[in-house]
Amino acid sequence: MSNTRKKNSKSDASPIDTVAQALHRVQRALERAAERAGGRLPDDWSIDVELSAADRGEWHERAAALLEAAREVTLSEKRPPRGPDDALWCCQCKSAECDHATAPGPRYTFDGYAATGKPTWIPFVELCLRRRPPGMDRIFAEPAGVIALKCVGDDLGEHRLAAFEPGPETWEVVGQVVAGLVPQDLDPRGQGDRFALTIQVLRTNFGGQVRFRLGLIGCTRRHVDIQAASGSERSPAEQLRRTLAAARRTLEKLERRSLDEAGQADRISALLSTLRGDLSRIFSGKVHRTKHAQRRHRSGARPTSQAVSDARGASMERVLFDIPRETFVILGRKGRAHVFSRSARHVTSMRLEDGEVTRKKRRQRWREVTPSEYQALRRQLNNAQIQGERSAEAS
Ligand SMILES: [Zn+2]
């Protein structure tokens, strides 16, 4: 492998210098590969380098493998930007904060991208009148029933021009299921305001790697969690929570499989069909409950004890009140937060996004608690803890 001419030109460098410089150049090249993948190499990352004699082709293969390994480790460290929960990317305004990005009202659902990539919206009832799904008359009955529709592919993006395709860092809708009109408390027998619940499969091609996520329009994941926690194990809200969790697991599995676009589209279509069936069943008003589910409910399957003990130790500055939901949000460590009902029941725990607290306070979604609210919550939490310990001893 020696090359006489090159050797002579570097004759003043010692072998140690030569090897050190070569290794450093390799390391720099891997760093640049990571930068091109939109991130940086993890600090503790290292890789074995094969140095046995080889021909020119073999050296190139080894180099390609090293660069690919650097790219992969970078991507695996980096998740694409989450994107807002209830807004879509508008390719016309290049923003998720313009008026097109969010539904104009709770009864609207996404109706595909316009030619300029702008999301368009349609009232759920109008969508039904256009599509005429089976059982449509149920939505006009008294009391109104809930029906679910699946929309994929051509239903959602056929008018879009190539110049307005979303960029690699944006999420686009590949399909959705819409159920409507659903009562606010997610109980089909519920009274009061209704909304269109849209569950979307969103895709991004981030750093050359396809990622999926589930998006909700009409209500947030937290709303589902809160309703699920305040009802029984058989409540429609709890069933919806599980259905969403199962769909997320399916999408995670799909990300790990190397399928071509047609293969992915088939799987997503199948997932949406399952979701449509689930939503129809959940909001049919029929109730199923297994003995197993009853047992699990009584024993309290949620990991609440850690949340309760975190909450009990929280100072007043770390407790906020969620105004629209009437819940307490307790800021934990490492960006975690625990949500409690007014009666100190643990609703859910979540990871906060960067700046979420500031944003929610500015939008007057969250506010600080008063000393008396704080004291009342602490009393309730202490009682909850004592009761929890008693029931654990009794079982
Ligand atoms: Zn726009």
Report on the architecture of this protein.
The protein has 395 residues and is α+β, with helices and mostly antiparallel strands. The protein has three domains: 74 residues, no CATH class; 184 residues, no CATH class; 93 residues, no CATH class. Helices cover 42% and strands 19% of the residues. It is built from twelve helices and eleven strands. The strands form three sheets. A five-stranded antiparallel sheet has the order 10-9-8-7-11. Helix 2 packs across helix 3. The protein binds zinc ion. Zinc ion binds next to loops.
Helix and strand pattern: HHHEEHEHEEEHHHHHEEEEHEH
Residue windows where pLDDT falls under 50 for at least 5 positions: 288-302, 391-395
Quaternary structure state of the chains depicted:
single chain
- Our Rg estimate from Cα atoms comes to 27 Å
Separate helix tally: 12
What is the total number of structural domains?
A: 3
Distance between the termini: 74 Å
Which small-molecule species are bound to the chains here?
zinc ion
E-strand count:
11
